[in-house]
Structure formats: C-alpha cells, structure tokens
Hints:
Elements: H1 137-157, H2 193-196, H3 216-240, E1 249-253, E2 273-275, E3 280-284, H4 290-293, H5 297-316, H6 318-329, H7 334-360, H8 366-376, H9 392-405
Amino acid sequence: MTRPPSGNGPIPPGGRPPHPGQRPVPPPPPGYGQRPGYPQQPGPGQSGYPQQQPGRQPAPGYGRPPGYGQPSGYPQQPGQAPRQGFPPPAYGQQPGYRASGQVPRQPAYRPPMPPPPAYAQAGAPPPVRPAPPRRGRWASILVILILVISTFLVRAAVRTGLNAFGSGDSVQTTYAPTPGGESAGVAATVDNPLLAGEDLTLVPANCKYTPWSTEVGTARTFFETAATCLSNAWKPVFDEINLPFEAPKVNVSADTNGITTLCTGNSSNFAAFYCSADQTIYMPISQLQTDLFKNDWVVYLSVFAHEYGHHVQAQSGILGKVHQQRRDAGTRSDTGLELSRRTELQANCFDGMYLASSKGGGALTTAQIGVARTDSYHRGDSAGDMRDHGTSQNGGAWFELGFDKNRTAQCNTFSASGKQVS
C-alpha cells in the first residue's frame, strides 16, 4: 500500500509527532472513547478503511467557510501555503431590475372583460330605462337674468338714499343742471375761491330749532328755521371771498305725489334733493325714513344741511362747472360718475361743517352729534347702485373731516385721490 502524503496518514498512538517548531498537541481528555453500543469504525491504515487510489490526489480537507479570510492569532503552518478565503457568493438578477441595454418585457394585451349580463327574475318584465330629465337649463337661466335686470332697474329707479333718478341721458342725483344758475360764482372746482382760503370756516351759532314732527306744518317750520340758520352761517363766507349769495327756497311735503319739479319732471320716485334749476330744496317727509329714526331730528337736520351744501356749491360756481364736465364726459361714464361722487362727498363735508358750527354754539349736544356721525356712515352707494354718491365709508369720513376741521379747504374733494372718493 502506498503511503499517503504526510498529514493524511493514520495517527499513531499517542498522537502525531509535532512538526519542527510546532508545539505538541496535548492528548484528548479521558472519557471520550468509543461510545458503548456502536461498532468500532476502521481508521486509516486499518482493514476496512478505504485506501487511496494510486495516482489520485487525496481529498482536500475542509477549509474555512467561503468569504472568511485567515483568522488572526493563528500561526501559519510550516510548509503549507496560506489558505485563501473565498469571496462571498455573487448575487443574481434582482427581481424588478433589468440588465443594461435589455428591453423590458411588456405584458401581453388582454381586452377588458364584457360586463356581466343583468340578472332578471324569471317571468319578470324587462327593466325599463328611465327617461332622461327634461332640459330646462336655458329657461332657468333666462328667468334668473330677467330677475337680475329687473332688480337692478328697480333699485336704480327707486332710490332710498339721497338721490333721484330722471329720464333720458340726464342722471339726476341730489342736484340737477340749472339753465341760469351755471353762471353763478366762479366756474371752477379744485381751485374755486370757496376752497382756496385756508381760514374759511363757519362760526359757532346757537340756532333756535323749532320742535320736530312728521306733521307737514310742523316739519315745514322746522326746516325753514334750519334754512335761516344755514344761510346765516354760509353768507359771511361768501362775503369774505367777494361772491354773492342768495338763500334757496324750501319745499316740504308729506310725500312725492303730485310734486313736479324742473329736475324730476312728473316722476314721483325721488328722495330729498336739491334742484339747481329752480334753486329749491325738496324735503318729502315720506322719504326721510321717519319710521326708522323716529324723533332723532338731528338726522333730518343733517340731511337738510347736506342738500344745503349743494346750494352752496351752486352759488360758488362749483356745481355749474361739474355739470359742464359731466355733460362733456357723459353723465353715466366713469368720469361723469366720479365727478358726481366728488360733488356728493363734498356736500357731506359741508354738512359736517355746519353741525360743528351748531354744536359749537350750543344748539346740538354731543349725543346728537354721535347720532349724526353714525348715520353718515350708513348712507352711500350699495351693491347694484349707479356709484354716483360714494361708499358709506367715504361718506362718513368726509362728514367727520368737515366736523373736525370746519374749514372749506379741507372739503376739497376735487383734489382728493380716487380712493378717497370711491
């Protein structure tokens, strides 16, 4: 029998002799002999042990698991090549990824399955498809448009504020063009003499207002007394700028029925307003919202002072110039409506000036001024209006400016920004 290479032969009793330079291996501890009941297995070199075939290399021993290198702390065996670790096994193709340049496979197209047939009970009549709803969309839209247009026209015709609506191309606000009155004063707005003086003010005056009542005679006396006090307050200002001043006429009625004016014609749809054509202030009691304000007569006085402010504009020449500019631009044009707003807001400022004069003279109390101030913030253009009076916020702001400053120069709405007269 050919002796196997060194290291693979039978181990002699007492263990294999150590190689040169190698420490002897201690014998195995006692107690680990042949387990009872098991036959003795032949070892190398013994009978029954498979022998190495001639010319064939012996089976290699088991090395270290792949991927692990030589462990540290163990000396290299003499005469043996160092054991090389095996690289970790490579990973195959990952699912969901394709190699570079490989075209992914597209799933084959399968047509959708037809819907399942409707189940019908045996003997039942076939289902009847409901009829589509009748299309009434256009009719509904037409009705809505008619309602919107009608609402707009009614609001424009029946104004509950401070303006009246005329006919034709002439928009009648709280004043109207006057054939002869346009030559009064100086035809100018922003640089009118009434607005040029820095110290033009209304002096305090204690006006003896008469009692208020919705009865026509009592109300007429109240407004005529107020008209006298307003003329006494404004005439000294015109004297100072060397312009003539003539007091307006006052028309007080229970309602608008049968009232014909040069500014409204035969229409009865108007509120309190000033007509420059006949230089008259019209005060229909039914249009003063007496059911809302009751006996707070300072509100009616404030409305009257606003209309009187339009007469002041007419006497100074401001109103005549505005009429000319509105006719040139178009009364309903953006420019024409802005000129109307500037005129109305200036009358608010003149209203505040007069109430400051009356408060300063002791004719009005602080509480009454508070009522008038609050009311000034609740008058103006609403949604759908023609935008010829200005917003309620701007209306109240110009009233307060007139009351606080009491100077005509502070009421120059024609030099104000567009935002202030919106």
